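seq as requested:
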Amino acid sequence: MGKPHAERKIEIIESALSLAAEQGVKRVSTQAIADRVGIAQSTIFRHFKTRDAIFAASIEWLAERLFQTIDQYFTSKEPAAQRLEKLIRKQLLFVSGHKGLPRLIFSDRLHLESPVLKKAVQTIVNRYTAKLTSLVSAGIESGDFKQDLDADKTARYIAALLHGMVLRWSLFDFDFKLEDEANSIIEFINKTLLTHPK
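struct tokens:
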């Protein structure tokens, strides 16, 4: 008897991400995923209609896991500066454990060839940026952050800084510890945002 549908889907997603990290997105076929999981290719199509459907599900699966990991920092009662620092550390640590993520989100497949994948990522980025904007706004209101900051622009710049570091990590084939970059990013952000930089 086969595995439950939900369990098999997770196996397929994890295998697709693993292969993307190792080989790049273009070389990930449904046959390669099936071989990695140890099932027939036809079984893949019982769970996902297309390869892009697997990648879209992978993005959504990773996003939900990421938000479960970091949501506490958007809602806790700690000072905004402390929450932002913990958020950055936790986010980089999370991404460091999922090398297939940057391979996928920076791929031509997502940017140029699949509107479905692009839309999925845009939705997640907008959700993340909105939460980050609320965190920055809370810091401005509390006096932790400079009063002349534009919360929305600041949130987009922080997100871009983190995305840029993840892109660099992927470009250099993961040859440094992503989470070790948190200190320099936090130091830069603190000098830019804090009313009284440390």
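The longest helix spans residues 115-142.
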